[in-house]
Amino acid sequence: xxxxxxxxxxxxxxxxxxxxxxxxxxxxxxxxxxxxxxxxxxxxxxxxxxxxxxxxxxxxxxxxxxxxxxxxxxxxxxxxxxxxxxxxxxxxxxxxxxxxxxxxxxxxxxxxxxxxxxxxxxxxxxxxx
Length: 129
Hints:
Layout: H1 2-21, H2 26-42, H3 49-67, H4 70-75, H5 77-89, H6 97-109, H7 114-128
Helix pairs in contact: 1-3, 2-3, 3-6
């Protein structure tokens, strides 16, 4: 049991370091984080999927987005929107992902002003219909 706890702490430390470096290496870090999601979704039938999804969203993606500067998020909003469409569009039967994904999207939207956010919400609404 203590070995598993040690491994969890190590994973948490690694993900925390990646998230903390995101502001210094914005594009590289963000692209790596975004590229990891399809791999996560493709393993949704794994018995460890819930653990991986929680780590990905709670310990990596959401903290990365929260730490990125507002101007960076605004400049790259189109890439974020495409990414969120990809995340919402992939079939994942696990209900754990939905609240984690919503929390991540909330972190993104809090970085935008109303003028930028309004067309994004309209675009996502049209896309989902």
